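Consider the tokenized backbone below.
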């Protein structure tokens, strides 16, 4: 399994292609997920609160910009782990296949 984590360009590319294709197919078939809708709703709530409390539009833009940076950083963390889980699943699949062939 160590080789999947150290030399993983093929799996990384495979993960990215499959992830994008899966996400696109999901949205085409079902629309945006409830979780995404909830995130968008909560983000609008935050923006509305900021607009009520802060009258300077530039300050609101700065706060929202920082909030977006936090969101993107958080997404990169999740993506990091999803990528690793995909690789572990791939390695488990190969291991499982080898075990079945022995039976």
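A designed sequence for it:
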């Amino acid at each position: 399994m160590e080789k999947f984590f150290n030399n993983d360009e093929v799996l990384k590319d495979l993960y990215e292609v499959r992830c994008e294709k899966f996400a696109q197919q999901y949205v085409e078939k079902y629309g945006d997920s409830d979780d995404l809708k909830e995130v968008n709703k909560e983000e609008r709530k935050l923006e509305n609160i900021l607009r009520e409390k802060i009258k300077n539009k530039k300050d609101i833009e700065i706060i929202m910009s920082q909030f977006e940076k936090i969101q993107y950083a958080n997404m990169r963390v999740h993506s990091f782990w999803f990528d690793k889980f995909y690789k572990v699943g791939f390695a488990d699949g190969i291991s499982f296949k080898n075990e079945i062939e022995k039976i």
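Residues 25 and 31 are 9 Å apart (CA to CA).
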